[in-house]
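Thread: quick sanity check before group meeting

JM: Hey all, I'm pulling together slides for Thursday and realized we never actually wrote out the predicted structure for the chain we discussed last week. Dropping the sequence here so it's in one place. If anyone has concerns about the input, flag it before I start.
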Amino acid sequence: MNSSKSLFFIVNESIYFNNNICSIIGCHRSTISFNYLGVLIFSSGRKMQFFQPLADKVKSKLASWKGKCLSMIGHVQIVNSVIFDIMSYNLHIYKWPINLLKEVNKWVRNFIWTNDVLKTGLVTIS
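JM (edit): ok, ran it. Output follows.
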């Protein structure tokens, strides 16, 4: 067992008990909120604070492509292949809060139509 990579979790026990366990097995105590294979593991209900870092990662990816010379099809393709894959990996495990999904959808829509996450634009149809 690699004690530097191992964690243990105890709920509702005394500090003395936790310290004894730490010294006996040589592992660190952790809270039930950690990443495992790129997915956040937590014990409480679905709260916005648990999903916000992943939404910020999607937003930063979209913002980093802002200066790229991509066509409309290029925007759609990059969103389908990168952004939706990031989200679908986590959506298979957790149901996201609807407000956060709407916000990410708005960022994607703005990126496709205006090449900027924060700027909304008029959609022209011929």
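AS: nice. The chain has a mean pLDDT of 77. The CA atoms of residues 62 and 118 lie 10 Å apart.
JM: adding both to the slides.
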